[in-house]
Recover the amino acids of this structure.
């Protein structure tokens, strides 16, 4: 049973969007570990008549490598079902003829192979983790402060995420750092950007009220989806903290222990 | 001649407070370099009947080592004339019986020798420069997020400073990063904190209207001093940028090319 209600949309529901890290698996050394029940839960959704997409702010690997990891963990997922910030950013850069200085994890660089990076006129940051050194942040700062019209794109705006050995600072923290250093406002690509959620809805051909987002991040998953007119459910795995249930501005449409419980609620209400 | 006016306080003036980095010298490799005319300007002030204090947000070395560097550069300065954030922070920590986790430059650590640092219940950050690694920032974050009532003290809130090889990110950038990560507001110790300026005024036994602050940082030196009722003059050295003269919220009482020019203006008006 969900402790704090459940969105009353299950009968009209046509599509489900799942966050990945903290919902399907916990990241950490190697591939991380699948969250108990989540492999089976994805199978059940795929066997239903609901559409299913995956929406992640993962920016430490290309979509191909990231999906391969999930497949190794046992998940039935293909690249075309996964939406992530880097391909969305590449589209924006090309559309506006921008040449980025990249401060991203090495593993993500291949996503930007097709983008001109000479003589940069903007900065793109992702979750660079250990590569968020003082020197690398200073380099990104130097590019921005030298531009007449500095533009910063952030692949997500998360505060932190959970790895098997503890909480880790996420890209949003460094976005705020550069915003303050350069007195500018970054453009977020990825969750909770409405453009990003809308691209997933477009791909499913669904309206917001026909779709449900399930995530562990109250602000970026649940709040972001709600901002687009979707329902948002939070799972008590991943970066979930009990204080999320008393948050001052975002209230989930439902809170459940894990993805397995969420999927059972959805499918039971449809029978 | 000053291009943009000069505060009309010179006749009632009894004390001058000088920022150090960017006013007396430019930092960089080794000891950095004295700004032309500034050694002589300090001498002239000392030979006048004006009181003189130095007020810095320097947090990469103890006051003793920092003053020794300025002396090597040729400045007539003693430790008792210099106000810096670390001793002010130590006083606050002892007063409130707080045990800090320190994220500061190694050279600053001796300032905190007398403070109990076991089982920390707050975090103090200074300009840690290269020591602002992802790992060290994560450690500070972990301490804060594990506290029921997380408290962050920041030794200054500067955005960046100038070294001989370019602009460098300052402590304020990392303060904003941790503020966002932990959803809290840091307490700033050092400029532009009114408590910090007031302690300098107290030491001189002067009222704000009898004192003038000269610095290269429009917000933290000039704005901070003005907020305390003092006049604030900006020099066009150090981190000064032309856009400072069109700033949306802070306007200097005077803007001059360098300290030498400022001191000549002060002393000429008194004769």
């Amino acid at each position: 049973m969900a402790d704090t209600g459940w969105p009353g949309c299950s009968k009209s529901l046509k599509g489900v969007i799942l966050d990945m890290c903290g919902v399907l698996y916990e990241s950490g050394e190697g591939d991380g570990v699948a969250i108990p029940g989540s492999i089976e839960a994805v199978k059940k959704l795929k066997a239903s008549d609901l559409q299913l997409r995956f929406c992640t702010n993962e920016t430490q690997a290309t979509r191909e490598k990231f999906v391969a990891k999930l497949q190794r963990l046992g998940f039935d997922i293909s690249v075309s079902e996964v939406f992530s910030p880097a391909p969305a950013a590449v589209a924006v850069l090309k559309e506006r003829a921008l040449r980025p200085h990249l401060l991203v994890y090495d593993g993500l660089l291949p996503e930007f192979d097709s983008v001109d990076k000479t003589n940069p006129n903007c900065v793109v940051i992702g979750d660079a983790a250990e590569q968020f050194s003082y020197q690398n942040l200073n380099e990104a700062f130097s590019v921005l402060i030298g531009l007449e019209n500095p533009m910063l794109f952030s692949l997500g705006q998360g505060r932190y995420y959970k790895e098997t050995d503890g909480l880790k600072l996420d890209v949003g923290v460094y976005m705020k750092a550069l915003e303050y250093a350069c007195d500018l406002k970054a453009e977020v690509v990825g969750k909770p950007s409405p453009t990003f959620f809308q691209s997933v809805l477009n791909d499913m051909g669904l309206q917001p009220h026909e779709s449900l987002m399930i995530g562990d991040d109250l602000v970026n998953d649940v709040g972001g989806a709600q901002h687009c007119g979707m329902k948002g459910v939070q799972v008590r795995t991943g970066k979930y903290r009990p204080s999320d249930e008393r948050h001052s501005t975002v209230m989930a449409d439902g809170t459940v222990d894990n993805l397995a419980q969420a999927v059972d609620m959805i499918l039971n209400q449809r029978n």
Q: What stands out?
A: Chain A touches chain B at residues 128-135, 137-138, 141-142, 145, 159-160, 166-169, 172-174, 176-181, 183 (CB under 8 Å). The longest strand of chain A covers residues 51-55. The CA atoms of residues 67 and 79 of chain A lie 6 Å apart.
